[in-house]
Design brief:
The chain has 578 residues and is mainly alpha-helical. Among the domains are: 23-109, no CATH class; 508-578, Orthogonal Bundle (Arc Repressor Mutant, subunit A), CATH 1.10.10. The chain has helices at 2-25, 36-46, 51-68, 71-87, 91-107, 111-127, 131-151, 156-172, 176-192, 198-212, 216-233, 238-251, 255-272, 279-292, 296-314, 330-471, 478-506, 510-517, 523-533, 538-545, 549-562, 571-576. Helix 4 (71-87) runs parallel beside helix 6 (111-127).
Length: 578
């Protein structure tokens, strides 16, 4: 018998040694993966085949993060556990995890960790049509996200998640105006991150809004475009997608197509154990579809199925949801305990205050007596102080009179110095004005002298030409004629150089501005611009340039084209502005 007992113990130990590693291997530890998201994807892939393994993996990872004091990851793990329970319509367990996550985030004062908890609480409350409570939690998440985004501009993804949750919730409540507003905000974030896969979920919400607003064909087109992506990367989400396709077909009175997609949605839900809470609604939609087709037996069958599941999932009398009327709110319970503790402390403080009141009363009586004695001493002191102050005030008035007299003398002296400075500045300004006037007079004298010299030179040239012509017999030799022409030409060129020099001295920056803006102007164009600047007539320009008036007009026309001037712009005003 003893031998049999020993063998039994050995067998048990061997079995435990074999089964223990098997249990360890059956858990996916998060520390064996490069990122939290990679671990979560692996958990979701095995959730359908081995839900027990997924649940244990969640718990082991949560314990690991608690040991590492990684509050944010621990909270995210609890949120994912709640989502997993929600897919199985285990709302009681989902709420328990969310309240534990909220309590943990509040204890650590981690606002970032509270955001996903508030979002999930808002979504679950919306399933029970508790709109006010749902929006309250979602708006709390949005407020925290905005504050964190101000502190860290790289955390804009938190805002995008809140906007998406609000958009989806308002869609559930058929408030398309608010849903579209938050969806537009989501698309703005999507433009900044075009590689994100969130675009497919946003397109789905956009299709839901289109359907609610009566654009059913547009909704169908969008849904069929995104359906292949969901089939490959998020097949469980097809429950919602196929249901929406069925709704759009129903609105378009394509009842057979609607029936097909409603049944596809039910099949996907059963296959992937996803969105089971949505199945009662699909059954009711099928019943409505059959009722319109006058297949009343099928309509009755499906409405019974829908009511049965609806009662099981959402009726507060069901075993699954009986305790939801009194949700296990660990966060609020802890807050209540803290409140009670504070109240007890206040009571204790109140009793202590009563004991101190008597002592304070006695001290008050003693203080009154002391105050009377002090007041008597103070009156004596005031009388003495009054006499001293009276003497001091007399001395102070005398001192003030002396100071006022000195200040007046100082002000008079400063006024004299100020007048002298003003006179000196006025004299300096007058000297500067006289100097400028002299310089201007000198410049004008130079111009007058130059003009006089040119007139004399022209008179001499003309006199020479007259003398030669008068002495001749009517014929002028070609050699002499060329000399005369060269003399006149040289005189004209010299006249222009002197004119240009005087022009540049007066208008120093004119050519610089002109060449900077229009560097393709020729020498002749620049001369014409200078003459236009002086506002000379076409006749005067022709004499100075040695060309005809028609040529002046032609050159002005060509200049306007080079300056790209339209007809309504005056050439003279344009050049004068340079």
């Amino acid at each position: 018998m003893k031998l049999l007992t020993r063998q039994t113990v050995i067998l048990i130990l061997i079995f435990c040694s074999i089964s223990l590693p098997a249990q360890v291997e059956s858990v996916l530890a998060v520390n064996n993966f490069s990122s939290f998201q990679e671990w979560l994807n692996q958990i979701n892939s095995i959730r359908l085949e081995n839900p027990e393994k997924a649940e244990k993996s969640f718990q082991v990872s949560y314990d690991y993060f608690i040991a590492q004091r990684d509050t944010l990851s621990a909270v995210n793990t609890l949120v994912e556990m709640a989502i997993n329970y929600g897919h199985q319509v285990e709302y009681q367990l989902a709420y328990d995890k969310l309240w534990r996550a909220l309590f943990l985030a509040d204890q650590s004062r981690n606002d970032k960790a509270k955001i996903p908890v508030f979002i999930q609480l808002g979504r679950y409350y919306s399933f029970y049509n508790r709109q006010k409570t749902a929006l309250n939690y979602l708006n709390q998440a949005l407020a925290l996200s905005k504050n964190l985004s101000k502190e860290d501009t790289t955390r804009k993804d938190l805002l995008a998640g809140c906007y998406y949750a609000l958009c989806s919730t308002y869609n559930d409540f058929n408030n398309t105006l608010q849903a579209q507003s938050y969806l537009d905000s989501c698309f703005l974030f999507q433009e900044k991150n075009p590689k994100s896969t969130n675009i497919y979920y946003l397109k789905f919400e956009e299709a839901c809004i289109n359907a609610l607003e009566g654009r059913n064909q547009q909704s169908l087109d969008s849904l069929f475009i995104v359906q292949p992506w969901f089939e490959k990367y998020s097949p469980g989400f097809q429950v919602l997608l196929f249901t929406q396709i069925g709704d759009s077909y129903h609105s378009l009175e394509k009842l057979n197509e609607a029936e097909i997609y409603y049944k596809k949605a039910i099949a996907i839900s059963e296959e992937y154990k996803s969105h089971l809470d949505f199945v009662p609604k699909i059954y009711k939609r099928l019943s409505r579809n059959y009722s319109i087709k006058k297949e009343f037996q099928n309509a009755f069958t499906y409405v019974q199925k829908g009511n049965k599941l609806d009662k099981a999932f959402f009726d507060s009398r069901s075993d699954n949801n009986r305790s939801l009327l009194e949700i296990k709110d660990e966060f609020r319970v802890e807050k209540e305990n803290q409140k009670n503790l504070l109240q007890e402390q206040r009571i204790s403080n109140f009793e202590q205050e009563e004991r101190l009141n008597f002592m304070e009363y006695m001290i008050f009586v003693i203080l009154i007596v002391a105050l009377f004695f002090a007041a008597w001493l103070y009156i004596i002191h005031l009388r003495r102080k009054h006499r001293i102050e009276k003497a001091l005030n007399k001395k102070k008035r005398e001192l003030e009179k002396q100071q006022i007299k000195e200040l007046r003398e100082i002000e008079i002296q400063q006024a004299k110095e100020l007048r002298e400075i003003e006179i000196q500045r006025a004299n300096e300004l007058r000297e500067i004005e006289i100097q400028q006037a002299n310089e201007l007079l000198e410049l004008k004298n130079k111009e007058l002298a130059t003009s006089s010299l040119k007139l004399i030179e022209k008179d001499e040239v003309l006199a020479t030409l007259k003398e030669r012509l008068s002495k001749g017999d009517g014929d002028i030799k070609a050699h002499d004629l060329k000399k005369i022409v060269r003399s006149i030409s040289h005189s004209n060129a010299q006249n222009w150089e002197d004119f240009e020099a005087r022009f540049i001295s007066v208008n120093k920056d004119f050519y610089n501005k002109l060449n900077a803006r229009y560097h393709k102007l020729s020498r002749g164009d620049q001369k014409l611009c200078a003459l236009v600047k002086l506002n000379l007539s076409s006749k005067e320009m022709a004499k100075l340039l040695g060309i005809s008036i028609e040529s002046v007009h032609t050159n002005r026309y060509r200049l306007r084209k080079k300056l790209n001037l339209t007809r309504d712009v005056s050439l003279t005003e344009f050049i004068a502005s340079l």
